[in-house]
Structure formats: structure tokens, C-alpha cells
Amino acid sequence: MAWTWYDSTIIKIEDESPTTKRFWVEVKDVEKIDFQAGQFVTMDLPIHEKRLKRWRSYSIANHPDGTNILEFCIVLLEGGAATEYLFNEATIGTPIRFKGPSGTFVLPSEIKDDLVLICTGTGIAPFRSMVWDLYHQNKEHKNIHLIMGTRYQEGILYQQELEELKTKLSNFSYSIALSREENIEGEDFYKGYVHQIYEAAYKEVRSDVHFYLCGWSNMIDDAVAKLIVELGYDKSQVHYELYG
User: Fold this and answer.
1) In angstroms, rounded to a whole number, what is the distance separating the alpha carbons of residues 97 and 87?
2) pLDDT (tens digit, 9 = 90+) per residue, 195-215?
3) Is the pTM of this model over 0.90?
4) Measured by CB atoms within 10 angstroms of the end CB, which terminus of the chain is less buried, N or C?
């Protein structure tokens, strides 16, 4: 497979949570960067002499808007060379070289069934791209249920946008699982993990629903087992992207 390499520059950095930052890069020498909502790029970061140990993949967090600007939502990993570089050394003007966009974790061109988007942490990035793409392109769709898991309320990513999407995007809803928060308020917030939410909401097996999973590998492994083995959904109804 032929890769396209791009040079870009960081043009904006914002804190999204105590451990997560949003990075915007402007791609050089192109008027727009073509990609599908849900795809990722692989960055070549100056963190090692060996090429393959410099590469890190991150999902694109913004929807395809016809510009040459991409957004990434990245969490700081303790001892992670790439994220420590991005958090502690990268600044406005830092060059970022990447290849892609690539990946098949995208929605079908025609959406005939309900979508359940299950994520932990920055796994929300491709889903943010997908739902805003549906909105801006006014694509026909059924019900969309985003289920996000994090430890504390301060770790919820894009919370204001989730509320905005409830009013702008038809048939959109979201649920937040907080595993360690003690004082939980609001109808969309639950104590526990993402598994408890979808197990209760989709315990009756349906042929008209597809589950998309993105996040840490242990969550993905558990969700695949619960959806297919325990609940009885067909494996063709479960789609996933792994992080870590």
C-alpha cells in the first residue's frame, strides 16, 4: 500500500481535561486534506533513532470540512515517549510529519440501522468526527447512542459539544459512565462502566443495530465478548478500533 506523507505545523493547543490536550495542525502545500470520518494518521515524531519506534497513530477528531486543518485529542500516558514529547516539548509552530489518512473504521455510506458508539477516553475522537460529519452533510440516519466511559467527571471530553449535538442532530443521545466519581448528577450520567449501560439498553438482541467500539484494548475485549458471546449479537454487528 502506498502511503502519502504530509508536513504540517501545530497552530493551536488547548487543554481538554487534566490529562488530555487538543492539537490542531495545518497541513502544508495542500488546500484541503481528504479523509473519511473515523480515519487516523500516523505521526513520525522525533522520539527515537529507529523509524518504527517514532511512529504513533492518532484518530482525526474533526469532521472533513474541506480545509487543510486536522484536530487530534491526545491523552498523556505516563512514560509514553510520544505523548510526553507532544505535551512537554511541542508548541505552536512545531512541525509534525505524518502519513495517511488511513483506516477502515468508518460508517457505511448508507446508514440503515441504529448506531451504538462505545468508547473510553480519547476513543471518542473518531466518533466526534463521525457524528459531526453526519450533521454537516445532513446524512440520513437512524438512532445514534454514544456511550463514553471515564473515571471522573473532569475527564469527560467534548461534553459541551455532546449537549449541542442533542439539540442539533436528530435522534442523537449520549450516556456517560463514571467509574470513580462519587457525586453523580444528571440523567445522562451513570456510576460504573460502559458495559453496564449497553448491556441494559440492548439486552434484547436486535438485527437493526450496529455497535462501534473505540478505546483501550481491555474495554474492547470485554465488550466484544459481552456483545457476541453473552448477549448473542452477530459478529458482523460489532466493529472496533484498538488503542493500546
Assistant:
1) 17
2) 999 999 999 999 999 999 999
3) yes
4) N
